[in-house]
Amino acid sequence: ERTRHNMGYRVLDEIARRCRSEIVYYEKAYEALMAEVGLAGERVLLCRRAIQPRRDYWTLPAGFMENGETTLEGARRETWEEARARVEGESLYTIFDLPHISQVYMFYLARLSAPEFAAGPESLEVALFDEDAIPWGELAFPVVNATLKRFFADRRRGVFPVHNATLRPGD
Fold this sequence. Notes:
Elements: H1 4-19, E1 31-40, E2 43-49, E3 58-59, E4 62-64, H2 71-83, E5 87-98, E6 103-112, E7 123-129, H3 142-157, E8 163-166
Parallel strand pairs: 1-6, 5-8
Antiparallel strand pairs: 1-2, 1-4, 2-3, 2-7, 5-6
């Protein structure tokens, strides 16, 4: 069975075999998190988290990539798992490096395929928000806040370039 954890050990075992070494030193690599800014007309899809960290706070559907999937596949899977929503027309939108926690976030813009969504097992509730109704003080993570602010500013300009930034504590 392929899982995030056992695949890493198989790869390390293979590296050790090829190097003919009994000791393999491994330092955690960056973790990639995928997310989507799901749109329904003028509104954005947000999920209220049912899990830690930041339980009860709002976020865009997001999560870690699984082995063997592309970033886009990961974003689609996470959108389904957390919001029971299907999306289409995805395009890469923001990339955030968070070197202090060894993570990279990639957000895609996407349209909801249908106005159907529901809370998945990691969400308490899921809702569509207009810009003026976003619960800004209740967003789970700085990357969500930064992505939404960029999105609404870009929407006013009518252009959606790919944004790339590094976020550090206090940003």
